[in-house]
Amino acid sequence: MRCSAPRADAALPQGSAAPPVAAGFRIGPVLVSNPFLLAPLSGYSDAAMRLIAREEGAGFAFTEMISCIAYLHDSRRTLQRAAWLPEEKPFGLQLMGADADLMRRAAEKAQRDGADLLDINMGCPARRIVRAESGSALMRSPESAERIMRATVASVDIPVTVKLRSGWSREIGDARAVAEAAEAAGIAAITVHGRTQTQKFAGKADWEVIQAVKERVRIPVIGNGDVETAVEAVARMRGAGCDGVMIGRGAIGRPWLFAASLALLTTGMLPEPPGGEALLRLMLRHLGYLQRLYPAGQGLLRFRKHCAAYLRGWPQSKALRAHLHTLCDPAAVEAALVGYFSGGHASA
Ligand SMILES: Cc1cc2nc3c(=O)[nH]c(=O)nc-3n(C[C@H](O)[C@H](O)[C@H](O)COP(=O)(O)O)c2cc1C
Questions:
Q1: Are 159 and 111 in contact (CB under 8 A)?
Q2: Which of 26, 186, 241, 336 is spaced 20 to 30 Å from 175 by Cα?
Q3: Residue 40 beta carbon below 6 angstroms from any ligand 1 atom
């Protein structure tokens, strides 16, 4: 494996030279094999992306948010979102809802369907979700949040976690108080995205709130927000003293970020990103998993989004992407990628 020292311009914060600890951590009985987790990402984190992320070093991965109502109605699209591949186990299924009884029933179903861990979405800021009093709306409704957490925890044997924002706003629904209530309700771990609902995705994630949450509870705390590089992942984890770091947007098209973060944490060395041949193999594996999960046309549509991310920064990749968009046959997509990476267009 080719390695390099971390770039000087991406230095770790002062006082962060503590001896690295490789071990992951447990959420109840579930082993998170290392501290770098794939975030739930609607439209992306299906079983194919999760399996790729796990193979590329993620310690754990979550489904995108699953509406408890649609799940209980066996909506075809929702069941597709909740589908998993045996090789990715253990995995977490994220539930979203506003009604404690529906969440309880959905949790029971998810456990029966094979989920190893359940996560309650208390972070989605989308207007449609908030209007339904679910997602991040739960940050401003402590009673409703507590009912949902207690009902979900009581209904299953598998661990239940929550994913919070740093608050509803700066003034309302502070993550520290919500985290304490979550721990008291039997929640097994907490992820905090360091932005308020009112911020949506604007501004910078506040990792001081994540550190403050970690200091308030005894259960594992996973920090999340704006981690784009392995250096940032390790620095954020050490800076906030949290148990893990969840990576979302930064891992789309760059799943090797997980292994790189782990290598940096444990050895202090930073592996090189994959060259052309390794990237080609990775992309074809991803395409193969999508074909296992979806009818051919649908799998290809999903692959296009990931392709754009994988090919970011590669020479003449815009033309390749445009060409891929004209292809309707996975074998033709494979041939085009092989041609690109072996035909001298890409510098491996
Ligand atoms: C396209 C997209 C889809 C997302 N879907 C979900 C979701 O289904 N459930 C959830 O809890 N968070 C979701 N999030 C939020 C991410 O999990 C994460 O908290 C956020 O992107 C900040 O982390 P990052 O800076 O590493 O991306 C989504 C974010 C994006 C950009």
A1: no
A2: 26
A3: yes
What distance in Å separates the CA atoms of residue 348 and residue 339, rounded to the nearest whole number?
13
Compute, in angstroms, the gap from residue 228 CA to the centroid of ligand 1. Answer: 13
**Closest approach atom of ligand 1 to CA 226:** 25
User: Dihedral, CA atoms, 307, 310, 313, 316, nearest 10 degrees?
Assistant: -40
Q: Within 10 Å of residue 249's Cβ, how many Cβ atoms?
A: 16
> Going from the N-terminus, what domains does the chain have, and what CATH number goes with each?
25-271 (3.20.20.70), 276-342 (1.10.1200)
pLDDT tens-place string over residues 97-121: 999 999 999 999 999 999 999 999 9
CB 60 within 8 A of CB 38: yes
User: Are 16 and 214 spatial neighbours (Cβ–Cβ below 8 Å)?
Assistant: no
Whether 123 is in the pocket of ligand 1, judged by its Cβ within 6 Å, is yes
pLDDT tens-digit profile of 7-37? 433 333 333 344 444 569 999 999 999 999 9
> Is the pLDDT at 280 greater than 60, yes or no?
yes
